[in-house]
Amino acid sequence: MTQWSTSPSDPLISEHTLLSLADGTAWVAVVGKPETALLTLAPTKLAETGLVEVAGLDDESRQRIWATHRDSVLAEAKRRGYRSLEVIDRGDLLGGHGTETVRGVIRMVSDRDVSTDRHPDVEVARATDTGAIVRLIRDSFAGHPENSGWKREDFHSRAVQDWFDSEGLFITRSDSAVTGLCWTKIHPDGIGEIYLLAVAPDTTGQGLGRRLVEHGVGYLMRDQGCPAVIVYTEEDNEPARALYRSAGFEESRVDRRFRLSV
To answer: Is 109-254 the same fold as 15-97?
Structure first.
């Protein structure tokens, strides 16, 4: 299947949906021979809510498949028992005006290595840390629509992907407990990503997040030669946005989600 993107590190279909397509739990409509656009419906952590994404070779093809297959995806959502859909609208193309905006995710980019000397309290995670990492993600993303429900299988589904690098998975400890996580990723075009950043709720305000970001950026840019690093964060998470801005990241795009009733 075509992987449409503005660049290999900026796909128009999320990893969540790609994993759902791979395990057969997502529905997809394809237009064009060869393919020019696709519309996907994937499950979310909320049993009654589905996630819709649109990809295409250009903006026109994305708008066209949404206009022509919107009713089909609503019918499939109803068949699956969903009561609502979250639709990701990258670039404000799908006409979601007048509907409820659920959330916005900001893509931030940095081409500057602002890392300092490596922090001695940051280490590479061990295979035995998986359970603690999953608990940390759940705790630090409490209430988040995707990350709050992490299980071991969510970790393992990513650990078997081609991009997974066990040497780029960093943690901090306190009295043997895992207190922080910086999970890095390198895209096919060489662009790095802070894939997940998590700190234990009782450690906020201690500069742990900044040390983890600096370490991750240093690993990606200094050790792996990435020309730039990206990160995605919630639009309403001002502390995270401020942290990334202080580490040299600039905001490049907002992808908003709107809700449709089924």
So the answer is: yes
CATH of domain 15-97: 3.40.630.30
- The token duo for 235 is 């639009």
* Structure-token match 């580490």, residue found: 247
Domain regions of the chain by residue span: 15-97, 109-254
How far apart, in Å, are the Cα atoms of 212 and each of 120, 132, 228, 238? 11, 17, 17, 18
Using alpha carbons, list the distances in angstroms from residue 29 to 24, 67, 127, 196, 211: 14, 13, 38, 30, 43
Assign a CATH topology to domain 109-254.
Answer: Aminopeptidase (3.40.630)
CA 183 vs CA 47, 72, 153, 218: distances in Å: 27, 37, 16, 13
What's the CA gap between 47 and 80, in Å, rounded?
A: 10
Spatial contact of 21 and 28, defined as CB atoms under 8 Å apart: yes
pTM: 0.84
What are 179-230's pLDDT values in tens digits?
Answer: 999 999 999 889 999 999 999 988 877 889 999 999 999 999 999 999 999 9
In angstroms, the CA 36 to CA 85 distance is 23
Going by pLDDT thresholds of 50, 70 and 90, the confidence category of residue 98 is low
First CA to last CA distance, the chain: 28
Cα-flanking dihedrals φ and ψ of residue 58, to 5°? -155, 175
d(CA 23, CA 17): 10
Q: What is the Cα Rg of the chain in Å?
A: 19
What confidence score (pLDDT) does residue 142 get? Answer: 79
